[in-house]
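We read letters as residues; the fold follows as tokens. Both lines appear below.
***
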Amino acid sequence: MFKIGQKVSHFMTTHKVGTIVNIEYTRNNFMTTGGTTQHKVYIVVKYTEEDIQKYDSGDLIKIYD
């Protein structure tokens, strides 16, 4: 579970640490034979003032220091 203000990193660039500034949820209206699928969770990470990126929540790892 991620929270705003936590330090995180993308799993492919662990040397680059940023801070979570927003968590966005999107509805998924895609129907399957088993019913609807889950909502998508995107996390906005701020590395510097100019470098703000949005990632899928499954691509991030927490950084403990």
Summary: The chain has one domain: 7-62. The longest strand covers residues 18-26. Residues 7-62 form one domain. The two ends are 18 Å apart (CA to CA).
